Amino acid sequence: MFDLKWIRDEPEAFDRGLERRGLEPQSAAVLELDRRRRELHTELQEMQNRRNAASKEIGQKMQAGERDAAEALKREVAELKQKLGDVEAREQELAQQLDDRLARLPNLPAGDVPDGDDEDANVELRRWGEPTVPAGAKQHFELGEALGEMDFELAAKLSGSRFVVMQGEVARLHRALGQFMIDLHTREHGYLETNPPVLLRDAALYGTGQLPKFGDDLFRTTNEFWLSPTAEVPLTNLAADEILDEAALPQRYTALTLCFRAEAGAAGKDTRGMLRQHQFEKCELVSIAHPERSWDELERMTGCAETVLQRLELPYRVVALCTGDLGGAAAKTYDIEVWLPGQEMYREISSCSNTLDYQARRMKARFRPKDGKGTRFVHTLNGSGIAVGRALIAVMENHQQPDGSIRVPEALQPYLGGQPRIGARADVSADG
Question: Do 271 and 319 belong to one domain?
Answer without folding.
Answer: yes
